[in-house]
Amino acid sequence: MKIDKNWSDYRLLATGSGEKLEKFGPVTVIRPDPQVIWEPYSPLRKKPHDAVYERSAAGGGCWEKKKSLPESFFLHWKNLTFELKLMGFKHVGIFPEQAVNWSRMIECIQNAGREINVLNLFGYTGGATVACASAGAKVCHVDAAKAMCETAKRNVEHSGVDRTLTRFIVDDCIKFVEREIRRGKKYDAIVMDPPSYGRGPKGETWKLEEGIFDLVKLTKSVLSDDPLFFLINSYTTGLQPTVMKNVSDIVFCDLPHDTDADEIGILGEDGLTLPCGCSAFTTFQKG
């Protein structure tokens, strides 16, 4: 399992009974997590916290929070700054376990010795976008939600990253890639964080385990002739890292490459490690 050790502003305080207690900068929250099937060393809800996400029997849920809690707050990682807030579906605007991938992408870009163009699909609030741009890459950030793209823009500004290095596209990621193929657009590095499940405007359904292979094959078509890396993230429970590695190795079998796939997670202050999905990171060598 890969775990980032560069956080000073984020802490996983404890886990247990289906929940996790986290501190994001000045704010401490309790959120549900399906991976947490063990009992806590001591009850989480008796510990100090500012907000708790309560699930509804009808599905979804809502935040119960202190009136003094600010609308938005900030979290820092290395020299980057992210704007957070309590959102629907227990989100706060960042996946802290992804920092392990940010470090690796930054290193790849800085060591490339050339200009790198990155495509960030399903870009959410722009953690990967800000990290890659901070290393000097040009980044195209794509997400179907306008609010997520707006937050990502602000995160670029909060982090002091050159705004001219980024562009933000509100669009369906698959349709965008199809148009980029027709336009002949190419990227040196691609990051994708597709949802486990989704539903389109016409009732179309997306299941990662059914669509990921075809999506990677499609997106390969916009890789440049001198690609740097291709990152796939998965939060689908039960989908092992080796599955993502096999997808990558088959799709890129005609290119000299190496795929490293592993769980990613967070080490809690209670001594327990929380698994947070997996990543397959493919790096390419010159042929």
With helices defined by DSSP (H or I, 4 residues minimum), what is the helix count?
A: 6
Strand order of the largest sheet: 1-16-17-15-12-9-10-11
Helix content: 10-25%
Strand content range: 25-35%
Poorly predicted parts = none
Could you tell me the mean pLDDT? 95
Derived structural class: alpha/beta
CATH superfamily membership of the largest domain, which one? Vaccinia Virus protein VP39
Q: What is the N-to-C succession of helices and strands? A: EEEEEEEEHEHEHEHEEEHEHEE
The CATH topology of the largest domain is Rossmann fold
Tally of distinct domains = 2
Give the biggest beta sheet.
8 strands, mixed
Radius of gyration, taken over Cα atoms and rounded to an integer in Å? 19 Å
CATH class of the largest domain: Alpha Beta
Task: Describe the secondary-structure layout.
Layout: E1 2-3, E2 10-16, E3 19-24, E4 27-32, E5 51-55, E6 61-65, E7 73-77, E8 80-84, H1 99-112, E9 117-121, H2 127-134, E10 138-143, H3 146-158, E11 166-170, H4 173-183, E12 189-192, E13 197-199, E14 205-207, H5 208-220, E15 229-234, H6 241-251, E16 257-267, E17 273-284
Parallel strand pairs: 1-16, 4-5, 9-10, 9-12, 10-11, 12-15
Antiparallel strand pairs: 2-3, 3-4, 5-6, 7-8, 13-14, 15-17, 16-17
Helix pairs in contact: 1-2
